[in-house]
Known about the structure:
The chain has 342 residues and is α/β, with parallel strands linked by helices. Helix content is 42%, strand content 19%. It has helices at residues 17-27, 49-61, 75-79, 103-119, 133-143, 157-174, 216-219, 222-234, 236-244, 250-265, 311-336, and strands at residues 7-12, 38-43, 66-72, 84-87, 125-128, 152-154, 185-186, 189-191, 199-201, 206-209, 212-215, 271-276, 289-297, 300-303. Helix 1 runs parallel beside helix 10 and helix 5 (133-143) crosses helix 11. The mean pLDDT is 95. Bound molecules: nicotinamide-adenine-dinucleotide and (2S)-2-hydroxybutanedioic acid (LMR).
Amino acid sequence: MASLPPLSVVVTGAAGAIGYSLMPMIASGQMFGEGRKIDLRLLEIPAALDRLQGTVMEIDDGAFNLAKLTATADVEVAFKDVDIAIFVGGFPRKAGMERKDIQINARIFVSQAKALEDFAKKTVKVLVVANPANTNCLSLMIGAPSIPRENFSCLSRLDLNRSRSQLCQKYRELHPESDVTAGEIVNAMVWGNHSSTQYPDVSHCVIQTAEGPVKARDAFDDAWLDGDFMSSVQKRGGAIIKARGASSAMSAANAACNHMRDWIVGTDECVSMGVCSDGNPYGIPEGLIYSFPVTCEDGKWKIVPGLPIDDRSKGLMLASAAELVKERDSVNEMLSAPAAAE
Length: 342
Ligand code: NAD
Ligand code: LMR
């Protein structure tokens, strides 16, 4: 049987902290499956090319199964006929900022949308990691209209992983004899923006214990679920910046790997992805990039339909959507502002 052609993958901001952690995940087959050769393109700004060369040397020293490795500051070289585009390039927030305050990243995305439109395959699958991830992804989707809207996504998997981990740790704290793992926390979901308005929803979540499935609402206090649990997931990024003096990198790369692998290989459980809200069954305004519970099959995601949503959940879901509408409006203003004003 003929082997598949190499998968071409571009990572922007490849010399940064997340880019560094992502490299072995991509090059070793963890992200796209072992045996699939990768044509890996690393995009950076000219000022970071020397630093990027160090990453290239380490990738070489990994002796990975790569078809090709290119380090460049030229968007045409990076995006030409690319199958997968992972947008990490951009600036992290500093202590005291919200993710939407990183204005400089909005400009990067408006200009990279054009490169995506001009050079990438029309089947390219896009994952945006750089913050504000939902709205940066929206800028790409608007600025690259010849690529189908379902091909654009942003990362909310880190928030889902954080939810699962916190639920697992609390369960073990309450049941010291239990060896339940984060992977045994199923149907946790994250709705909305990758910001402090995100809604980590446990209404449908179940813990697969050795004794059988237990609903999260039966396992834990409502006061904890609706209080400390929710706010610690919503504010975890800021807590990591405070503790590390730098934003999350290894867990972000791991989440990006989970996201892409599930999208390409498929899921056997519900996960969360930021995707286009057009036609969603939950009354979220259309034309946003919004995190929904999804399943993936044959390289396509599908929003999980038919979940019962109570009034409290609906309010939280719409509040996060309202924040995204505001972010969209400010990007639209920037897009329509004359270039001389920049
Ligand atoms: P970093 O500063 O270590 O690396 C970012 C890299 O992007 C730098 O090397 C920089 O030179 C490069 N870059 C800047 N402009 C570029 C451009 N126009 N083209 C290509 N490269 C460019 O930052 P990091 O820790 O890797 O984080 C990257 C982004 O990811 C930040 O915006 C951060 O807030 C975000 N982030 C998102 C999540 C999430 O869950 N969505 C999680 C963690 C971090
Ligand atoms: C995170 O959630 O860790 C990232 O979005 C980084 C940040 O700014 O919080």
